[in-house]
Amino acid sequence: MKPKKVPLRKCVACQEMMPKKQLIRIVKTPEDEVLIDLTGKKSGRGAYLCGKESCFKLALKNRALDRALKGKVSPEIYEQLAADFIAVEDEVIAAQEREHD
């Protein structure tokens, strides 16, 4: 039996290819709302970031989310994402550890 194909995505900050489940999806909805999508199923344009805070800071510095989401992301949204990202970071790290076991 063939092994199941694992979908890969690229982190917009560090440009590293990783399995989709190990990345955090940031989505720009059709209503122009930017938020974190843990399910990976919300409609809209998506961008992926590693679960590391350093990658989020790099994306903020380089405006990588602006390019990936094809639109201006306001500083207020970056602040909200930073707060959400720190809260979600622990969940992502725990999920990655479960996959390795």
From TrEMBL:
Pfam families: YlxR. Residues 9-82 form the YlxR domain. NCBIfam families: RNA_bind_RnpM. This is RNA-binding protein YlxR (DUF448 family).
